[in-house]
Amino acid sequence: MINNLLNRRSHRAFLNEKINIEDLNLIKKITLQAPTAGNTTLYSIIEIESQEIKNKLSILCDNQEMIKRAPHVWIFLADFHRWLKYFEYSETEQKTNSTIRKVALGDLHLAMQDAIIAAQTATIAIDELGYGSCYVGDIIENYEELQSLLNLPAHAVPATMLIFGKPKKKLNTPLVRPDEKYIFFTDAYKEQTKTEIEETFSKHEDNARNNNALPFDNKGSIADQFYLRKFSSKFMKEMNRSTKVFIERWCNEK
Ligand SMILES: Cc1cc2nc3c(=O)[nH]c(=O)nc-3n(C[C@H](O)[C@H](O)[C@H](O)COP(=O)(O)O)c2cc1C
């Protein structure tokens, strides 16, 4: 277990077969054991079986072909819809002689935490059983199309997506990460110096430079690379637009 956690990698290429049903059921059981806020299970998971939907997701998520070919695709939703329906069926409003307030940003934050903790629990179970997975953050793009594709109510919104299966080749060489001292602070936020911030990503930078992968003729920094490839990218612009739409719908629809 510890060894698997220390050597875990994301996997994007899978054999064209499903994992066995016993293991799949075990992954579901372990996922449901994830901690959840007040034990309220503020999430749902949509398992995508339809190849047609996988193809559409592949386009909606920044044209990532790996989604089409993934044997298992799970979409994790931050879900308050279930509780709103339960209030209604339980006639909670009448019984408490109150008006049920609108669902708000704190509710969203909590439900997102639940959904993502469930996803990470699934990731660990998948890896522990010898399979491989990869998150797809781009599931928060193109909300309107996703909403109609999956019939999402206003209070069940995308948190993240996992693809998984039997890896073509199990990867076990971890990628570089920052040193602990740059990520763990004691008692309060620690403003970092220029040198400390540069050192935080120095291993990433060495790797990229060795692979001739940095911008400005390999003379740029990881900051320049992140800015050009991600922060100012079209897909990040779309993520920010789409997220705004589903948050506004979450906060405004009853
Ligand atoms: C929130 C999140 C979103 C991600 N989205 C994608 C994605 O859309 N496509 C992809 O190929 N990998 C995606 N990844 C995988 C990361 O690229 C990967 O975790 C990172 O490069 C580190 O590699 P490792 O997981 O092998 O250590 C995502 C990971 C996270 C945590």
Any chance you could write out the topology, listing elements then pairs?
Blueprint: H1 2-7, H2 21-32, E1 43-48, H3 51-60, H4 66-69, E2 72-79, H5 81-89, H6 92-96, H7 105-128, E3 132-135, H8 143-150, E4 156-165, H9 180-183, H10 194-200, H11 202-210, H12 215-218, H13 222-231, H14 234-252
Antiparallel strand pairs: 1-2, 2-4, 3-4
Helix pairs in contact: 2-7
Short précis:
The chain is α+β, with helices and mostly antiparallel strands and 254 residues long.
Count every beta strand, where a strand is a DSSP E run of 2 or more residues: 4
What name does the CATH topology of the domain at 2-173 carry?
NADH Oxidase
CATH architecture of the domain at 2-173: 3-Layer(aba) Sandwich
End-to-end distance: 44 Å
Which CATH class of the domain at 2-173 applies here? Alpha Beta
Beta-strand percent range: 5-15%
* Helical run tally: 14
The main pleated sheet reads as: 4 strands, antiparallel
Associated small molecules:
flavin mononucleotide
Compressed to H and E, one letter per element, the order equals: HHEHHEHHHEHEHHHHHH
Task: Please state the average pLDDT score.
Answer: 97
Provide the low-confidence segments as ranges.
Answer: none
What's the CATH H-level superfamily name of the domain at 2-173? NADH Oxidase
Helicity, in percent? 40-55%
The 3D shape can be described as: globular
Report the structural category: alpha+beta
As a whole number of angstroms, the C-alpha radius of gyration is 21 Å
Q: Main sheet: which strands, in order across?
A: 1-2-4-3
